[in-house]
Fold this sequence. Notes:
Elements: H1 5-17, E1 39-43, E2 46-49, E3 54-57, H2 72-82, H3 94-105, E4 111-115, H4 118-133, E5 137-141, E6 167-170, H5 175-185, E7 189-194, H6 210-222, E8 226-230, E9 253-256, E10 267-271, H7 276-281, H8 292-307, H9 310-332, E11 336-339, E12 346-349, H10 356-366, E13 370-371, H11 386-406, H12 414-421
Parallel strand pairs: 3-13, 5-6, 5-7, 7-8, 8-9
Antiparallel strand pairs: 1-2, 2-3, 4-10, 9-10, 11-12
Helix pairs in contact: 2-8, 3-8, 5-6, 9-11, 10-11
Amino acid sequence: MWRNTKDRELRDRAAEVIPGGMYGHQSTAMMPEGFPQFFTGAKGTRITDADGNEYIDYMCAYGPNLLGYQQPDVMRAVAEQQGRIDASTGPSPLIVDLAEAMVGMISHADWAMFCKNGADATMMALMIARAYRDKRKVLVARNAYHGSMPWNTPRPAGVVAEDRAHLIYFDYNDTQSLADAAKQAGDDLAGIFAAPFRHDTFADQSLPDAEYARTARRIADEYDALLIVDDVRAGLRLCRDCSWETVGVRPDLSAWGKVLGNGQPISALVGNNRARAAASRIFVTGSFWFAAVPMAAAIETLRIVRESDYLERLTAIGEQFRAGLAAQAVEFGFGLRQTGPAATPMVLFEDDPDFRLGYGFCREAMTRGVYMSPYHNMFMNAAMTETDVAQTLEATGAAFEAIKKSRASLKPSPVLAALMEA
């Protein structure tokens, strides 16, 4: 039987010593009531919370779990490297090995730099774009998420106007809006940020239109600015290269994170020779950016990416997951919108403006051992099996039945409602 006594106790303790009780994207403040905040175990496709409840995890640590938690080959590389050297006075030779591996895999890449988080990588990309021709203006799609730095955090408390003074916004997949933004920047255009596909929170996902992607490339060339693809969320889940290879467009820079070390803390920025001199001019660093253990994990992860059918398997599993949910929605009389790639599914209910159906559904599934999000895209991983999908659909079928019976009494999250209104 599902329980959350220990989680509630931990929340009470956390509220005394952590601002807000928890912070960042892994805070459960916006999740349905009772969703666990604290976890004590993870293996393969499953996570275990502080009360011992086990879940099939469709959030995959919000992306980093690509191959399965504690994938044996990756963990073996981690253990072996921990016995040699990790963070030290200088990097290990693995930094060269990893840079060579990424340059060898990513079509537009001539060099690579490493850091810890996606926000580090996108911040580096922003700096390099501005250093490239000493220009200031950067184009960013409205509502696109590129990290939590002041220039783009979705919650602007503590941010001043100067932090965003040189950002110009356009509508994703709208070539005219993009062209107008570039015209507004004029001779001061430094770079264009592009998400590999539209993956805004609370909204349907949409794949990039090829003409939109080509327009972004053309404008960057015309204005002698850098085109940046933020592949932190989608990298290696759409293809074994930069995600915009799927539409035939190569950027100057691409930011990578999440999956790179299959859960080990490492991210990267890769670029072409056009951007090399600018990358050499900026100063960026971190005490743990050069640590060897995450690099060993990344090297092994990339080997598996190159040599296995991980991508085909997680895509097929994602398609099975979607097909099962679609059939259940019809059976129980609900409308579902399933958008974006099968590997990063977004599942939203029709006629659910305040997300009360999504919240009720995900909570019912959670108490039956399936962890999903009612407002954020989810993630598939290569360890998932048909058995996992079958067990998931058993839980979601019961969840559909439960919310059909209690539909009139379902309530939206007051925190989410306030956030959406703001």
